[in-house]
Amino acid sequence: MQQSRLRDLIVGVFVLFGLGAIAYLSIQVGGLYYNGPRGLHLYATFDHVGDLKPRAAVVIAGVKVGEVVSIGLDDNMRARSLLDIDPSLELDVETSAAIMTAGLLGEKFVALEPGWSDDMLSSGDEIARTESAISLEGLIGELVNNADLGED
Amino acid sequence: MRIAPIELLGFRSLLLLEHLGHAAFFGMRIVFSLLAPPLRFRRLVIDVFDAGVLSLPVVCLSGFVVGGTLSLLGYTTLVRFGAEQALGPLVGLAVIRELGPVLTALLVTGRAGSAIAAEIATMVTTEQLDGLRMMSVDPIEFVVSPKALALVLVMPLLTGLFILFSLLGGYMIAVGLLGVDGASFTTTMESAVEFSRDVAQSFTKALVFGCLAGLIATYRGYISEPTAAGVSASTTSTVVIASVAILVFDFFVNGMWGV
Predict the structure, then answer these.
(1) What is the pLDDT of residues B24-35, one digit of tens each?
(2) Residue A48 · residue A132 · CB < 8 Å
(3) Cβ contacts of B220 within 8 Å, gap of 6 or more
(4) H or E stretch including B94?
C-alpha cells in the first residue's frame, strides 16, 4: 500500500507539472491572455496593401493593440481592411493608418497614429487618412528609371 | 502463372483493409468501454505511471539536447547576416510547431508503446486474456482501455515538458555559450509564437499522436500470435507502424491547419 501511495503521489506531481508546462506555453509563450474580447471595429482603405495578411498586428507607437480581421476589395477597387482594436482606446477621427514593414523584409503590420481632434471614432467608422504599403519592387523600379534619366 | 503476383497484391490489399477495419472496431470498443460505468481508475494511474512518469527522463533529456542543437545550428547560419535576434523565434517555432509533438510521440512510442504491445502480447501468449474472459471480465475494458487512455493523456503532458526543456536548452546554449542577449531571445520568441496558430496546433498534434500510438500499440499486442516470435513481431511492428503513422498524420495536421 505504501508503494502504491508513493506512485500515486508521483503520478499526481507528473500531471501537475505537465499541465503547468501546457499552461506556461499557452499563456506566457503563446500570448493567450491577449486574445480577450476586443471590439472596436474600424475600417481602413488602402490603395495597396502589399502582402498584409489577416491577423497581422495593429500597433500604436510600437505597442500591439489589435489585429487585422479581414481584407477585401471595395467598390472603387481599393483594398478595404477591417481592424479589431482594444475598445478601451480612445482614437480620434484624425487618426491615420499606415502599412509598415518590420525590418527590411519582415512582416507587414498596420501602424496607427492618433491625431489631435476632439471627435472620437466609434465602432464601424472609417479611418480617413491612410498610407499604403511601400513595395520594394516599386522603389527599385523607380530607382532604375531615375538612374537612366541621370545618364541621358 | 503470370497472374500470381497480381493475386498476391490483391490478397495483401484485402489483408490491409481487413486490419484497418478491425483496428477501427477495436478503437470503437475501447471508446465504448471507457464510456461505460466500471471506470478502472486504479489501473489508469498505474498505466500513466508506466507510460508517462517513466518516460520523463528520456523526454526531458532529449528536449534539452534538441533545443541546444537547434540553437547551435541556427546561430551558425544567422550570425552571418547579423540576425542572432531571430534565434529565439527559430528555436521556439521549430520546437513548438513541429519537433516537440513529433519527437515526443516517437520517443513515447519507442519507450511506452512497445512496452504496452509486448505486455499485451505476452498476456495473449500466456492465455491471461482468455483467463480474464473465463471470469467474464472483458480484457478490453480491464487491460486494453486503461493503457490506450494512458497514452492519450500522457502525450500532451510530455509534449509540454519536452517543449519547455528544449526552450530551456536553446536559451542556455544561446545565452550562456553563444552570447546572445537573453531578454531579446525570450521577447522575440514570445512575440513570434501565437497561441491559436502554434501552441494549439502543437497540442492538437500531441492528442492525435497519443490516439494513434495508443490504438496501434494495444491493437498490435491484442492480435499477436500466441508465440515468442509473435510477441517480438508485435513489438517491432508497433514501433514501425506507429512511427510512420505519426509522421504521416503530422503532415495532414500541418496541411489542415493551413499556414
Answers:
(1) 999 999 999 888
(2) yes
(3) B117, B121, B234, B237, B238, B241
(4) none
> What digits encode the pLDDT tens for the residues A67-93?
888 888 888 888 888 888 888 888 888
What are the residue ranges in chain A where pLDDT is below 70? 1-3, 31-38, 103-106, 148-152
Taking an 8 Å cut-off on Cβ atoms, the answer to whether B167 and A26 are in contact is: no
Cβ distance B157 to A14 less than 8 Å, yes or no, reads yes
* B100 CA: distance to closest CA in chain A (Å): 12
How many angstroms separate the CA of residue B64 from the nearest CA in chain A?
14
pTM of the model: 0.73
Query: From CA A130, how far away is CA A52, in angstroms rounded?
Result: 14
Q: Which residues of B touch A30 (CB under 8 A)?
A: 193-195, 198-200
Decide if B199 and A29 are in contact by the 8 Å CB cutoff. Answer: yes
CA distance B208 to B152: 8
Which of A24, A35, A55 has the CB atom closest to B164's CB atom? A24
Are B92 and A28 in contact (CB < 8 Å)? no
Per-residue three-class SS string for chain A? CHHHHHHHHHHHHHHHHHHHHHHHHHHHHCCHHHHCCCCEEEEEEECCCCCCCCCCEEEECCEEEEEEEEEEECCCCCEEEEEEECCCCCCECCCEEEEEECCCCCCEEEEEECCCCCCECCCCCEECEEECCCCHHHHHHHHHHHHHHHHC
Q: Facing residues of A93 across strands?
A: none
Residue of A nearest to B193 (CA): A30
> Are A40 and A89 within 8 A, CB to CB?
yes
Rounded to whole angstroms, how far apart are CA atoms B152 and B200?
Answer: 16
Which residues in chain A have Cβ-Cβ distances shorter than 8 Å to B193?
Answer: 29-31
